[in-house]
């Protein structure tokens, strides 16, 4: 690796400036694994993915991901915590207390173990993983647990030992994606803006961090960045947290409804959230246009463009941003909204324009870009929905270890007012953590009640 790519620089500076601590994906297993089996499974998993044994170091003026020089012991990445379940207090504990330092010989991830010893919470710096990377991590670990036969093996010891000839993190594939004609035009445009920016015209901020117009929806009781930052300038991470859970049988009915109307669950959830916001009193908001952010998995795009092997993009950050706008005053029928959003999502899913835009981050000062988002008068999106989809984690009831439930969540962020973090499993059904600022606890209650009522109705027998 020569240097971090644009998308990696964004995550690096956001974490370094302490505007993002970590995110997590947790699995609840059918039984508690012993430490000897976990140690063996982690050792195999770490050996497969160089990002798991690397940290960010400044090298020759550039920041790169370099393998660690120190041994990683099991206790370095496995930490028991005094919690019985994943609830609001646990979530805010994680996002306030679990963060990772750069420029040190320590990994950028760890696993928290709840008191039941069955619930394992992978916390990671966003620099080295996206949501689908955590799925790959857990698939590998659970496969290792199911293949282990370690009677009498030690329950502590190293899970990584540095040695010569270790595989290193490669340059991010986004940097190998060629510019399209539109991408080249954007490249010329941004280069011109960078040159003009020396005249302090502020063009970069105006284009990359557009301010909301008067028509855009803003909550009167949520002031930015006061609602995001504490007195010391760090993220507050004191959001209200609600799990919109749908059991497995009900989820099958809900997906059947989605299939009948030819929309994805992400499109439906976006539509439900949009219609729910109509129930908020007009005295509590300004404007009526909302902006919806939906991060999308770009692995298929990269493999198609570069004709690489699937493993080349299995681990790392392969996200592209989907952006959608709706005027609440013009929404009428729920499934109609879901259908129109689904069509737009499909269009953006098969477009690599977002990757082209991400490559432009290599041209600008990314640290200033991140700081500019915090200094903006309001977040760029009303809400974000990140859906990791339906995951079996390549295991089932016939295996010694299988996943009974899974959970995904992210900290209070600089891009959105509130967030939905979604993952589904065959046994546990759907868990969707809704995270929203304390200032909106009262204002959002009608919207939350609407979402719960609609999702329950759509997942019930008629």
Automatic annotation (TrEMBL):
Pfam families: AATase (PF07247)
GO terms (BP aspect): response to xenobiotic stimulus
GO cellular component annotations of the record: nuclear envelope; plasma membrane
GO molecular function: N-acetyltransferase activity
Name of the protein this chain belongs to: LALA0S07e03444g1_1
Alphabetized PANTHER family for the sequence: ALCOHOL O-ACETYLTRANSFERASE 1-RELATED (PTHR28037)
């Amino acid at each position: 690796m020569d240097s971090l790519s644009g998308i990696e620089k964004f995550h690096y500076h956001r974490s370094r400036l302490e505007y993002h601590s970590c995110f997590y994906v947790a699995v609840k297993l059918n039984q508690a694994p012993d430490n000897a089996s976990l140690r063996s499974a982690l050792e195999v998993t770490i050996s497969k993915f160089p990002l798991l044994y690397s940290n960010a170091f400044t090298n020759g003026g550039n920041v790169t991901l370099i393998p660690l020089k120190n041994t990683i012991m099991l206790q370095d990445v496995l930490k028991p915590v005094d919690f019985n379940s994943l609830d609001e207090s646990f979530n805010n504990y994680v996002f306030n207390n679990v963060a990772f330092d750069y420029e040190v010989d320590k990994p950028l991830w760890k696993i928290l173990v709840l008191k039941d010893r069955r619930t394992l919470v992978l916390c990671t710096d966003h620099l080295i993983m996206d949501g689908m990377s955590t799925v790959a991590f857990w698939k590998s670990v659970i496969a290792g647990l199911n293949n282990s036969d370690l009677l009498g093996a030690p329950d502590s010891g190293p899970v990584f030992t540095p040695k010569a000839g270790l595989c290193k993190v490669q340059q991010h594939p986004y940097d190998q994606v060629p510019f399209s004609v539109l991408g080249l035009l954007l490249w010329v445009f941004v280069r011109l803006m960078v040159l003009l920016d020396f005249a302090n015209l502020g063009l970069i901020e105006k284009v990359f961090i557009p301010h909301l117009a008067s028509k855009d929806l803003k909550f009167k009781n949520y002031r930015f960045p006061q609602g995001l930052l504490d007195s010391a300038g760090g993220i507050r991470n004191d959001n209200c947290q609600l799990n919109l859970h749908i059991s497995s049988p009900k989820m099958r009915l809900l997906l059947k409804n989605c299939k009948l109307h030819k929309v994805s669950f992400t499109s439906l959830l976006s539509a439900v959230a949009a219609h729910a916001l109509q129930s908020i009193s007009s005295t509590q908001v300004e404007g009526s246009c909302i902006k919806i952010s939906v991060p999308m998995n770009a692995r298929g795009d990269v493999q198609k463009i570069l004709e690489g092997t699937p493993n080349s993009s299995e681990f790392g950050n392969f996200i592209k941003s989907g952006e959608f706008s709706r005027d609440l005053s013009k929404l009428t029928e729920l499934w109609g909204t879901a259908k129109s959003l689904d069509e737009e999502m499909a269009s953006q899913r098969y477009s690599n324009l977002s990757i082209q835009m991400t490559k432009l981050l290599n041209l600008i000062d990314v640290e200033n870009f991140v700081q500019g988002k915090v200094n903006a008068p309001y977040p760029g999106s009303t809400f974000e929905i990140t859906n990791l989809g339906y995951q079996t984690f390549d295991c089932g009831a016939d295996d010694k270890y299988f996943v009974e439930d899974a959970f995904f969540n992210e900290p209070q962020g600089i891009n959105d007012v509130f967030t939905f973090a979604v993952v589904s499993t065959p046994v546990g059904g759907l868990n969707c953590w809704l995270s929203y600022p304390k200032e909106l606890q009262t204002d959002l209650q009608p919207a939350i009640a609407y979402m719960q009522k609609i999702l329950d109705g759509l997942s019930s027998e008629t």
